[in-house]
Amino acid sequence: MAREFASPAHYVQGKGVFNDPQKYLSALGNNPLLLCDNIVWKIVGERLKTTLETQKFTVKRVTFVGEASDEETARVTAIGKEHQNDFIIGLGGGKTLDSAKNIADKLGIPVAILPTVASTDAPCSALSVMYTPDGQFKNYAFYSKNPDLVLLDTEVISHAPVRTLIAGIGDAMATNIEAQDVARGYNKSMLGESPTLASLAIAQTCADTLFKHGAQAVSAVKGQVVTPALESVVEANTLLSGLGFESSGLAAAHAIYDGFTVLNGRLQI
Questions:
Q1: What family, per the record (predicted)?
Q2: Are 48 and 89 within one domain?
Q3: What is the rounded distance in angstroms from the CA atom of residue 52 to the CA atom of residue 32?
Q4: Whether residues 26 and 140 fall in one domain
């Protein structure tokens, strides 16, 4: 069986990188569709749109309304066709970002992924987790390429709710466990081929980073400051976990989560 590794074309992370988006986005086009929900719009979206417009981008803002569903992505795809957008910016959390990738694939245009939380490893992958409109897991949608750009402003992430970073740490903790399980069973990764040595090493580095810096990173977000520990954990949650899961594979942890989405009410543990 062949080995395969995938990654986004570019990954940029740092404090204040949303202040000069032209530096990173100009290669993708000049007429973007900006997808974000109303909460993210108030926190950073409106400011980003203003900055883009001062840098001569023509921005069409579209409100994301909650679920990464086929119905929602079809709605936004129609808007993108109407306005002839030449790339899409997904700004927000995992479901917004997965929707942006799906829409970009349908339109055949580049996609820039701008997470505002480090709660998921969705940004870097060439797939989306799709749900029904009422939030039940439906399927994985796979694409021919990974995002053209993943851009994270750690100043924004340091002001996000602490629980979102902790959620990302929990998600990323599963990456190495599942990667090792896939490798031991000679199973396939999410790419349909065997894991590479690089992807397995990345998954291990992800776990090592979280154990070493996780507690300090949580403290940094509690204080709303950007520290080296936070930078390391944001990278682990987003890049290392993303590369690790996609090119190494998933196992029981994600299957159990997918099953939980069909349950109603609060889960008692």
A1: Belongs to the iron-containing alcohol dehydrogenase family.
A2: yes
A3: 9
A4: yes
Structural domain harbouring 208: 162-260
Is residue 56 located within the same domain as residue 116? yes
In sign, the C-alpha dihedral spanning 207, 93, 129, 199 is negative
User: Is 265 part of a structural domain of the chain?
Assistant: no
Radius of gyration of the chain (CA): 18
Residues 142 and 216 in one domain: no
The distance of Cα 255 from the centroid of its chain, to the nearest Å, equals 19
- State whether 73 and 184 are in the same domain: no
Closest CA to 180 of 251, 114, 108: 251
pLDDT at residue 253 is higher than 70: no
Please indicate, yes or no, whether residues 133 and 227 belong to a single structural domain of this protein.
no
Contact present, 261 and 129 (Cβ < 8 Å): no
Q: What does the chain come to in residues?
A: 269
Identify the burial level of 84 via C-beta atoms within 10 angstroms of its C-beta, where 0-12 means exposed, 13-18 middle and 19 or more buried: exposed
Q: What is the pLDDT of residues 156-204, one digit of tens each?
A: 999 999 999 999 999 999 999 999 998 888 899 999 999 999 999 999 9
Write out pLDDT tens, residues 215-236: 999 999 999 999 999 999 999 9
Does the pLDDT value for residue 254 go beyond 80? no
Number of Cα atoms under 13 Å in the Cβ half of residue 11:
16
Number of structural domains found in the chain: 2
Boundary residue ending a domain (139, 156, 173): 156
Residue 252 has pLDDT above 70, yes or no: no
Report if residue 209 sits inside a domain. yes
pLDDT tens by residue, 96-150: 999 999 999 999 999 999 999 999 999 999 999 999 999 999 999 999 999 999 9
